[in-house]
Amino acid sequence: MKVERLELRLVSLPLRRPFQTSFGRSTRKEFLLVSASAGGVTGHGECVADLRPDYSPETNQTAHHLLRDFLAPALFARELERPEDVGPAFAWVRGHAMARAALEMAVWDLFARRKGEPLYRTLGGRGGTIAAGVSIGLQPDLPALLARVEEEAAAGYRRVKIKIEPGRDLALVEAVRARWPSLPLMVDANSAYTLADVPVLAALDGFGLTMIEQPLGWDDLVDHAALQARLVTPLCLDESIHSAEHARHALLLGAARVINVKAGRVGGLAESRALSALCAAQGVPVWCGGMLESGIGRLANVHLQTLPGFTLPGDTSASARYFDEDLVDPPVTVSPEGLIAVPEGPGLGHALVWPRVEAATLWKEELRP
Ligand code: OSB
Ligand code: MG
Fold this sequence. Notes:
This protein has two domains: 5-116 and 354-367, Enolase-like, domain 1 (2-Layer Sandwich); 122-341, TIM Barrel (Alpha-Beta Barrel), CATH 3.20.20. The chain contains 13 helices and 15 strands. The protein has helices at residues 60-76, 86-89, 97-115, 119-123, 142-154, 170-179, 198-203, 222-228, 244-253, 263-266, 269-281, 295-304, 354-360; strands at 5-21, 24-38, 41-46, 129-131, 134-136, 160-163, 185-188, 212-213, 235-237, 258-261, 286-288, 328-329, 339-341, 351-352, 361-367. It starts with a strand and ends with a strand. The longest helix has 19 residues, at 97-115. The protein is of the alpha/beta class and 369 residues long. The structure holds 2-succinylbenzoate (OSB) and magnesium ion.
């Protein structure tokens, strides 16, 4: 099979609530939607690059440049027998994992739809349900944070993650722990600390956190290894893991005991599967991170985390937490038990709502061989 047509569009969706981390504040989700067609069937991939290069070096504009000028031509030239053939077509491209992953995801969805099977089956996963966790951004004050934790714990989420930054860390964790002594709780610092902050980070050891996510440099493994040696709480790496190879290096160094997998950050679903298999072979748990995705990327995350290595609840939560109206119907929902049903329909498994997609589209462009 050869991909015959690609469509790129920039989609903008208002977020119901601003999402704040140590690196910035998002009020809308703006992303590239990549659609790949062959033989009258179309698959879709959501690019997780953002407006600013503050989480990773990529932006919507760099992803657009890569997709239009390098990745699309490389894909059009390639005869594909399976979705795994996309990775090798892009192997010469250095970096730009999010751009590569978006196009690869569209091809995975395309293959699954052509076979009439759910994406998880094409990937080698399983049907059923996945356990949902939730990521809560920095809040204006402590009462607001406690209200948000209350809401999400009541909604059934199986693990709560709160964002921290220097000056807004120990007191938050202490207050949440005091009120919910046995809630599976973790923190994510998005690279806001350095080794000079070891005293604060070591003090987090007293709160029974399931893990501390990415406290140090966005590209660092060495200092994380030094920090992990001084902590009881497992470190989890997010930003620093750009491939399965990086994960192998991180484990070799002792830089983490858990890995956050985001297909966009590591260059695709096949790479995510390789990474999860590598970790599983070493008894290292992985979980699926989130990038405030619309239902399209969100559903890909649901399918991905049916693979055997994903043994911890991820950051995939209900569409309604982010958007008044998602781009897929039905939206992604979470049961009172904190579970998400894995779709059984072809590909991503929920229908795209085209009038909503069109209404949210800022521009679109067609690419052909
Ligand atoms: O660090 O995991 C992160 C959102 C945007 C960028 C980075 C991160 C996040 C989240 C939110 O934590 C996860 C989600 O709800 O999609
Ligand atoms: Mg993170």
